[in-house]
């Protein structure tokens, strides 16, 4: 196995288990403990994990937290509640957009009773779930597949979106600062912006922990959304800041 492939598999193991020992990794990949130590050193320098005595554990960071496998596990019940409420905004016959986010992606579990629908999405999990449901037409956005985000992005994705029109776009974002949404990846930002341009109205679904978090790239002001859908666990200070800025909030 090539070193890069082995290191990716080490991250896959940590993504599932949270930690792993050097001995276990050495046996799993049939390489020396020294080789595993070098792998862990390189991954730690990249900010992807933290070496501990005898092994490694996941390192909380923007790079790690953006992985869809991590996002699906975090605040899972809260995200399901937000997606369930968002589904009440959808009417049969509409055309909707669902982005790559794990929160917005949860809508796929609530659409079978709102048929017929047309769903435009770059989210591979949503595509897989909805293609098996009669009465839901899925328009899959092409582009370059990102294993990290489990979705499609890039020029092809954006050009396809620019030729489509939808009634509603449901988006997620990784960070909210003040009255603006941010994301750590610029390609994702460009796709989300085009989704908003392609829809008559847009909603942002974010769990309460996203407020006050940092991320590198400005996505959009929250006034670009018809409403921000979050949980009633939102901090009172963050809620007040949104209200003062005239942002519509739906608390679930």
Automatic annotation (TrEMBL):
Record protein name field: DeoR/GlpR transcriptional regulator
PROSITE patterns: HTH_DEOR_1, HTH_DEOR_2
SUPFAM superfamilies listed in its UniProt record: NagB/RpiA/CoA transferase-like, Winged helix' DNA-binding domain
Stretches assigned to the HTH deoR-type domain: 3-58
UniProt keyword list: DNA-binding, Repressor, Transcription, Transcription regulation
Domain of life per record: Bacteria
Gene Ontology molecular functions: DNA binding; DNA-binding transcription factor activity
Listed InterPro entries: Carb_Metab_HTH_regulators, DeoR-like_C, DeoR_HTH, NagB/RpiA_transferase-like, Tscrpt_reg_HTH_DeoR_CS, WH-like_DNA-bd_sf, WH_DNA-bd_sf
Keyword Transcription: yes
Annotated signal peptide: none
SMART domains listed in its UniProt record: DeoRC, HTH_DEOR
Pfam families: DeoRC (PF00455), HTH_DeoR (PF08220)
Organism whose genome encodes this protein: Ferranicluibacter rubi
